[in-house]
Amino acid sequence: MVSRQIQALIQRSKSAAHLLQLHSLVLKTGLDHNPKFVSDYINAASSISIGFAKLAFGYVPKSPPPLFAWNSIIRAFAKSPAPIESVKFFFELRGVGLKPDNFTYPFVVKACGRCKMAGVGGLLHCLIMKGGFDSDRYIGNALFRMYADCGAVGIARKVFDEMPMKDVVSWSSLIAGYVACNYPLEALRVFREMKLADEKPNSVTLVSLLSACTRLHNISTGKSIHCYIIVHPIEIDVVLGTALIEMYSKCGHVEKAFHIFNSMSEKNLQSWTIMMCGLADHGRGNDAILLFSHMEQAGLVPDSMAFSAILSACSHVGLLNEGRQFFNQMVRTYNIEPTMEHYGCLVDLLGRAGLIEEAYEVIKNMPMEPNSVMLRSFLGACRNHNVVFTLDDKFRKVLTSESHLGANYVLAANLSSVSGCWSNAADLRLSMKQKGVVKVPGCSWVEVGGSSSGDILKETVR
User: Fold this and answer.
1) 390-396: long-range contacts (C-beta < 8 A, 24 or more apart)?
2) Are 31 and 60 spatial neighbours (Cβ–Cβ below 8 Å)?
3) pLDDT, tens digit (0-9, with 9 covering 90-100), for 394-407
4) What are the CA-CA distances from residue 227 to residues 100, 182, 206, 265, 461 (Å)?
């Protein structure tokens, strides 16, 4: 009874100070000797203060702490902003002579994936096989997701193929892994295998598939997946709805995306931001601004990404005054520190309006060095407005830092020529020739009569 009351109080706690008061009660009642309570206590405390959870672990009376306490703290840090601590606790656990079990490995493997520690993850893989846990489905799912998170999608696939039992989580994780590693076509092929294995997808699977269609700009396959969602039927929650909005808007069907957006009963900040991006990309800057206003009226607080979207919208359609207002609102009202992307949108906006000097002042006064994307935008504005700009060494160095991009060399050489710096222009073109760099011509593409990725799902999404 007492333990349940204390657990209820922990759930209602909102600060480390509250937890500290409850901890004295835990010690007084002797509940720190109850294995299940301590495990639940650490897990609950970690959602409020990960530092306090670590402190509570240190106060476990038994030395060394029992395995359940180690598992709880490893799990807590695996989900925290500092997953590396989970890995450190795992090796401390082994150092005191305890043997990890099937509850230990999934979380420490997840931590390795979040930290991109493929080497340590491989060591854990060896320990898992040595301990006889390689047939555990949960550990297997964690293993191949870790490899995928580290970019080793080939090894992830091998681990998946060797698993004796697979569930919808296994298939969904592999599909998500391929999408995350930028192999969207492979993700669609895995979905075909999943259907042949008679495993029904869930909303998590479909979110990843829609992301694959977005990357491939394959509207026909995306529509097929949308039909699958409607026919079966699968509830369109905020995550799935947002994935549909992104797929339709990125594939050029912004009206359909807007229809889905308006039909969603629940929207999060990402839903609003992606819809604003879609409107901006299709030249509907005024609609994006109106949507931003509605978002604020709905009580959502815009973040850095939302301001990137609205500044991009202003830049695309040349809304100079509105763009300035949004930039100032971001800094002064919401106390958001501008990033390179925000400054880039502002420079692009000013450059399109012909305010070259003001754009240059923004670049000079930024707290960080400009990147080549920003400089290309600025120098392109100089060229478009017939403004002669002398390319100094700093600008030239940034532009030529991406030695594989011929467009940077050509732009820098052309501006040097216009400025009368013929020797600099000649040096840049000679450098291009010596490095074998060429400017890739611009191009457009359209989908005609479907595509290979469309063929893959032609039968399986019906």
Assistant:
1) 390/419, 390/421, 391/415, 391/416, 391/419, 391/421, 391/424, 396/424, 396/428
2) no
3) 666 666 565 556 66
4) 45, 25, 11, 20, 8
Tell me what pLDDT residue 28 has.
65
Looking at residue 447, what is its pLDDT?
Answer: 59
For the chain, how many residues are written? 462
8 Å CB contact between 380 and 356: no
Distance CA(37)–CA(174), nearest Å, equals 35
Classify residue 251 by its DSSP letter.
T
Element (H, E) at 427: helix 422-435
Mean pLDDT across the chain, nearest whole number?
84
- Cβ(376)–Cβ(408) below 8 Å: yes
Whether residue 78 contacts residue 107, with contact meaning beta carbons closer than 8 Å, is answered with: yes
Other beta carbons within 10 Å of 305: 15
**Which DSSP category does 268 fall into?**
-
**DSSP string for 104-169:** THHHHHHHHHHTT-HHHHHHHHHHHHHTT-TT-HHHHHHHHHHHHHTT-HHHHHHHHHH-S---HH
pTM of the predicted protein model? 0.80
**Whose CA is closest to 78, among 87, 65, 69?**
87
Q: Cβ of 295: how many Cβ atoms within 10 Å? A: 21
Q: What is the dihedral of CA 111, 117, 118, 121, to 10 degrees?
A: -40
**pLDDT band with cut points at 50, 70 and 90 for residue 135:** confident
Q: HSE on the CB side for 165, CA within 13 Å? A: 7
